[in-house]
Amino acid sequence: MLDLTIKTERLALRPFRPHDGPAVEKFAGDWDVARMTTKIPHPYPAGAGQAWIAAHAAARRDGSNYPFAVTCENELVGCVGLNNLERGSWGQRVPDDRTTVELGYWIGRPFWGRGFATEARAAAIEFAFDWLGKTHLVAGCFKDNACSRRVLEKHGFAVDGSRMLRSAAQGRDVECTLMAPLTRDAWAAKKV
């Protein structure tokens, strides 16, 4: 599963490659992208993209993290990832941490408004349920990120509260919208 590529109508979700580092730094390091995440720093340090990518193979091997480069016509447009967790990173109660993964993503600003987030997330959800055998997914977004909330809701996530979480880019706690865990059954019903 280390080299798995998932194809959608317009996108390929593939493992990151070392040469993706500069594009990761450019797109994830954009203030408007980084400020909407908990973990991406701003400014994004030079060389940090390649260092982040270098850690992926070990995380995939041990099953703790599945980051995918989201590409369109072989151009990196963003990232979608699934992370195993001990407890929902967004603070949700999860039924069983062994069967639950956190779904996260970012799309580079030049590619906003094209439906890439919706398409990439759907493929990642399918991968989590069908390939990894997970039964629940958790996600969240900053309260002022209406676009991300709409993408989550399109996929069957429902608002389940809010809490304050630290934003590395903003250097402060930010109010976050928590989504109730998405179940395999709810996802299947949404697709029909």
How is this structure best described in words?
It contains seven helices and ten strands. It is α+β, with helices and mostly antiparallel strands. It has a single domain, classed as 3-Layer(aba) Sandwich (Aminopeptidase), CATH 3.40.630.
The biggest sheet amounts to:
7 strands, mixed
Question: What fraction of residues sit in β-strands?
Answer: 25-35%
Number of strands: 10
How many separate helices?
Answer: 7
Number of domains: 1
Judged by helices, strands and strand pairing, the structural class is alpha+beta
Uncertain parts: none
Q: What is the CATH architecture descriptor?
A: 3-Layer(aba) Sandwich
- Strand order, largest beta sheet: 1-2-3-4-5-6-10
- Percent helix, as a range, is 25-40%
Task: Estimate the global geometry from the Cα principal axes.
Answer: globular
Strand/helix succession: EEHHHHEEEHEEHEEEH
Instruction: Return the CATH class.
Output: Alpha Beta
Work out the radius of gyration: 15 Å
Distance between the termini: 28 Å
**CATH homologous superfamily caption:** Gcn5-related N-acetyltransferase (GNAT)
Q: What is the averaged pLDDT score?
A: 91
* CATH topology assignment: Aminopeptidase
